[in-house]
Structures are given as C-alpha cells and as structure tokens.
Amino acid sequence: MGTGDAGSSDTNGWNRARGLVVKTLVLIGGAVLLKRLTKSTTRWDHARIVADALTGEKFSREQASRDPDNYFNLRMFTCPAAEMVDGSKVLYVEQAFWRTPQKPFRQRFYMVKPCSKDMKCDVELSSYAIRDAEEYKNFCDRSKDQRPLPEEVVEDVAEHLTTIYLKRCQRGKRCLYEGSTPPGGFPNSWNGASYCTSELAVVKKDELHTWDRGYDENGNQVWGVKSGPYEFRPAPASSSSDMFSPLNVTPLEFLEKRVEGSFALQD
C-alpha cells in the first residue's frame, strides 16, 4: 500500500508540474503575441512599408487588356538608389512601354520619408527630376557595380516636381495607404498645363494605383487619362498566349501616337 501511494503521489505531482509549465508557456506566448499586436507602427515604419511597396517591376497589362482604348500596357520599374543623411530613401523609377523597356519615356527619383509630426499624414512621397537622365536609363536592370554610386545619386537629384501626402487607409478600406498632392497641385507647363495633380494608392504590398493629370489655368484637363488611375501589378506567370496578345502585336508607332496627351508624357 505504501509503495502504491508513493507512486500515485509522484504521478500527481508530475501532472501538476507539467500543467504549471504548460500554463506558464501559454501565458508567456500570449504576452508576446499581445505585445506584437499592440506594438505601434512608427513614423519610419510607415515610410519603409511604402518604399517597399513601390519597389519592384510592375505592369498595367491586366488593365490594358480590359480597356485598351484608354490604357497602355506599361512597365514601371523601381529600385533603391541611395539614402539621405536624414534617413529618407531615394528610389529610382522609370516607365516604358512593355515591348520596349530599354526606352523609358519617364525617369524620376522618388524620395520617401515620414511626414513631420505636425502634419496630418504618415508618409511624404516626393518626385524629382534627374540631372542626367540618360546616365540612369535602365538603372534597375543593371548590376549594382554598373550603376551610379549612392553619393552620385544624391548629387544628381534635381528639380522638385511633386509631393504626395499619404495616409494609412482607414480600417475596412481596400488599400494600405492613399494620398494626393495638396489642393492646387504643383506647377506644370507641359501641353498647355498650368498645374498638375497626382494621386497614389498602395492597394496591396505589391499593387499600386497612380493617377497623374494636368490642368490649364481655367481648370480644364489638358493631359492625363480621364477615366481613372493606372493599375500596376507584378507580372503574371508568362504563357505562350502572351506572345500573340493584341497588346503585344500592335505597331509601336501607333502606340506612340496614341500616348500623346496621356499621363506618360507630362514633362
């Protein structure tokens, strides 16, 4: 009897100890999870998320397939280029027709940083002209040792063009961040414009919607697509049918004529 009682006591003691260990691990795990869930996103976290979303090779192919009369199959390629002393990220971005990526029609530097604490936004996205755009053509396609150095990039940041003020999207909206230029936009003289406006939505971590338009002094739109923003997404898996898509066999000369007045040639 005594031996049996001792064995039973040992078993009960082990079960209690094991239960205590399990409860402790659950409590610790819950505390860690709660800390992660309640951890606030810092100002620089917002800037990093937007910069990461902008980065990469994206196309408007799906949108051009749905509405070829208003949208082109364009390629947007963005990659990190430098970092400023204050921590702002400098990205290089270029846009081209899908069929001719080696001939970009738009080249820019984007500067991404947090909004200042007194502003009602999370991220500032500013676009700048490039001092010698030819030198940066196909920057993102090159190996790093074939690109201008970061210190050269900083020196080649030229005229400020626009700034979009982004806010984190409200809960329930189908986007991560969205924003626009301030009322009145920024000066622009292309094709008779007096000013231009830009809108951007980071819909997913790898999907962007952009809408650039130019207006004359009377408020009439003189360039830019009118029916809605361009939708850029990563390229879908390639297939043999792509080779015979109407988007890819349309004569390039025809596309270049149609692009007149579109957002693509806003300079």
UniProtKB/TrEMBL annotation:
- Molecular function as annotated in GO: lyase activity
Keywords from the UniProt entry: Lyase
Q: Which is one Pfam family of this protein? A: CpeT
Q: Which InterPro entries match?
A: CpcT/CpeT (IPR010404), CpcT/CpeT_sf (IPR038672)
Domain of life according to the entry = Eukaryota
Check the record and name the Gene3D superfamilies matching this protein: CpcT/CpeT domain
**Family named by the database record:** Belongs to the CpcT/CpeT biliprotein lyase family.
Q: What is this protein called?
A: Chromophore lyase CRL, chloroplastic
